[in-house]
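Sample pair:
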Amino acid sequence: MIMQNQLTDVETERLPLVDGDLVLWRQVDLGRPYDVLMQAILDDTPWRQEEITVYGKPYLQPRLSAWYGDLAYSYSGIMLEPLPWTQTLLDIKLRVEKLVQHSFNSVLLNLYRDQQDSMGMHSDDERELGSEPAIASLSLGEERTFLLRHKSRRDLKTVKLVLPAGSLLLMQGQTQKYWRHGINRERQVCAPRINLTFRTIHRPAMTERNR
């Protein structure tokens, strides 16, 4: 279903998804050319290749990443301490927040250097994200195919979304509860891609911190 965003007149599309809620902006106004923004982020970010633990085994993520925001975040056995917001990221955050009508206090940057880099299938369902997190995913650089697979409904086909530079995908509601998402390697040569996933980290309750 095509909708018109009242704040920006940018065309949006609510994508049909059983047990989930996806909204896609195929091209958003970021105030500067996409390639200029991407180069600024590439140059300003202290990229790292994190080692994560999956089923008890450590391995290096097949991409580079960086964590910016107000609070720390942990997943797959690693703890990410936040870097201070840059002006570029703050400017993008404000534009994204106006579009999706959610506020965010953190952003995870992923750099896919070439066709060999990928993201394994997973859900962003950590406790500090809340029960129904809203996650806004902005793409810059080379387009890649974003995959979604239902966790239990084998009768549902894998959803494939090609995300070009300047596209923004909002995952909200129960999407993380019922779906996993990821990005596969590509057979064809790919230029670099940066993905910015804005999210809100909730402080743990005092009783949980003291356990």
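The radius of gyration is 17 Å.
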